[in-house]
Design goal:
- The protein is mainly α.
- The chain is 81% helix and 0% strand.
- The chain is built from 12 helices and no strands.
Length: 274
């Protein structure tokens, strides 16, 4: 009787082990199935399902030849889903865990690009834009001779233009409110930091406008000369800006003359009483 019970228990254990082995691949060939499944799902755009398969591959074979590829695919899946913070976390895992990987450079680039994608419109807080600029510049410094370095430089130019526009538009608002000094400060900040962006010439125009309103005609002439000598825009656009400034200047000069005549008339009336 004891032999029968022992035999029954042994058979049960063997069957359980066989069943577990069927569900949990242990060989390299078995774990590669996870990677192959993940790759197919990724290509079909089934990113969440692909992430699950790539994670299972890494879990069962963390030191495998395809572990870095799987980690990259996880980051890329989140990136393609516009989940950029999660993408940053996964690409960071790649560059920290798999320093030997051929995907290391691509991982660093995708971290920078994820921050770039998080950069909002110019009207909003630009903290992520600043982070993106740092990441992109660090990538260029580390890998200057790569094709992605050229792409990164283009993104930097785009982000700097956005930051320049934010300052320009802020100064423009103050100008519309009649706060000439505040407007000039914003445009000066813009020109000091983003002098090479598309909005630089228009920042100079805004400054010239404010100097007319402040009746600081000497500084107006200095800024006008900068606009005249500029080659940042077409001759037609430049002529248009200068003509607008000239009209504003003449209007303000007429006001000055009118105020002077009024003052003289007031003075004459006063003198008649004495």
């Amino acid at each position: 009787m004891k032999k029968i019970v022992r035999l029954f228990l042994m058979t049960t254990v063997i069957l359980l082990l066989a069943n577990c082995a069927g569900k949990n691949p242990k060989t390299l060939e078995d774990t590669n199935i996870y990677y192959a499944q993940g790759e197919k799902k990724f290509e079909k755009g089934k990113y969440l399902q692909a992430i699950d398969d790539f994670r299972l591959y890494i879990l069962n074979n963390p030191g495998g030849q395809l572990a870095d590829d799987a980690q990259y695919y996880i980051g890329e899946s989140y990136y393609n889903r516009d989940e950029y913070l999660l993408a940053i976390a996964e690409f960071t895992q790649l560059v920290e865990r798999y320093k030997y990987s051929e995907l290391l450079v691509d991982g660093y680039f995708k971290i920078a690009m994820s921050y770039y994608e998080l950069s909002p419109k110019y009207q909003r807080d630009q903290s992520n834009t600043e982070k993106a600029l740092r990441q992109l510049q660090e990538f260029i410094d580390a890998y200057p001779n790569t094709n992605n370095a050229k792409i990164a430089q283009g993104k930097i130019d785009e982000l700097r233009t956005k930051l320049g526009r934010k300052l320009y538009e802020s100064g423009k608002i103050y100008r519309k409110m009649g706060h000439w000094d505040a407007a000039i400060i914003y445009q000066d900040d813009m020109l000091n930091s983003y002098y090479d962006t598309d909005f630089a010439i228009y920042a100079k125009y805004e400054k010239a406008y404010c100097y007319i309103k402040k009746r600081d005609f000497k500084k107006f002439e200095e800024v006008k000369e900068e606009i005249t000598d500029s080659d940042e825009i077409t001759t037609e656009e430049k002529t248009n800006l200068l003509q607008k400034l000239e009209k504003m200047l003449n209007r303000e000069l007429r006001k000055v003359e009118k105020e002077k005549r009024k003052e003289k008339d007031e003075e004459r009336r006063k003198n008649r009483w004495f």
